[in-house]
Amino acid sequence: MRKLLYALAATMLLLTSWAQAAEPEFRSDHPERYTVVKGDTLWDISSRFLDNPWYWPEIWHVNPQVQNPHLIYPGDVLALVYIDGQRRVTKVTSSDVVRLSPQIRSEPIDTPIPAIPLDAISSFLSDTRIVSAEELEGAPYVLEGEDGRIITGAGDRIYARGDKPADKIGVFRRSKRFVDPDTGEFLGLEARAIARGEVAAENGDVLTVDLNSSTEEVRIADRLLVSEDRSISTRFVPSAPDSDIRGEMISVEGGVTQIGQYDVVAINRGEREGLAPGNVLAVFKTGNLVRDPVTNETVKLPDERAGLVMVFQAYEKMSYGLVLQALRPLSLGDRVQNP
pLDDT digits over 124-134, tens only? Predict the structure, then answer.
């Protein structure tokens, strides 16, 4: 019985410690008020108040007295308040702000601050996408450009063959093929956007396309897909995943060997595992394999926490994330899990 009581006590202590660790932890130097400036991100602001910024939804209090209470704009004043005995951060109205000296009144600009730096991920949100191999292989493909040119770009006319996907199209090139390194499961095919255009004419299965813009040269056999015109989302917020996530970084944009802050990485976990835009994951550096000098055995050193990554685009089987913190150079194969 005594052993049982000790076990129950230990279990309760463990659960209590876990519950405390799961609570937002305010920084010791957090501000009482903060005025949002141009260039701020929600991650920056959350990091000013919290040691664990992914708990921002837990402390954010919507003030119904202000316009667009869910959005934060440059010029907004955020204040730390107590609601039902709990510390919360909220937007204050102009009547709440005590002015100690004359100052110029500033109005917030129309664009709300993003969760993370959008210039680092804009091409992924607006163009690059994950598709199935069948979807890409079944799409119309470029035959050639006007006057027989094999390389074209913005302002040129091209000819393609296949069923018209839509009036407005994007020109895509097959890029990376993602496979789960543990199970061998096919996760998706990256289609990289090359150009955008409009179908000017149809002659049977031959399409005449006028290119409006391009980021790379369009080549023969590039594919045509529907131009989604996806707007860059600024609405997701830093959050902890709702489910238990254990995966790894399987690719990095740019083909670099060492991964650092603001690099875009692919993760072998997606919507089916419960990941959503805004979810923050901790990155653990894979421990080295070393030879025991005494027993001559191979010993794996423990993984060490080395950074944070936020998911900004989630697909069924995989996701794209932005590295927000790298305490040391990260590598492909490093583990990601709940922070």
Answer: 776 788 999 89
Q: How far apart are CA 63 and CA 68, in angstroms?
A: 9
Nearest in space to 83 (alpha carbons), one of 103, 63, 66: 63
The 10s digit of each residue's pLDDT in 41-92 is 999 999 999 999 999 999 998 877 777 777 899 999 999 999 888 899 999 8
Q: Residue 53 carries which side chain, given as an amino acid letter?
A: P
Q: Where are the beta strands (DSSP E) in 271-303?
A: 280-285, 289-291, 298-300
Domains located in the chain, CATH noted: 2-97+105-113 (no CATH), 128-226 (2.40.30), 246-337 (2.40.10.410)
Q: Does the pTM exceed 0.70?
A: yes
Tokens of 311: 């998911």
Neighbouring C-beta atoms of residue 71, cutoff 10 Å:
15
- C-alpha distances (whole Å) from 25 to each of 28, 54, 72, 194 are 9, 10, 22, 44
Cα 181 to chain centroid distance, Å, stands at: 21
Check whether 241 has a pLDDT greater than 90. yes
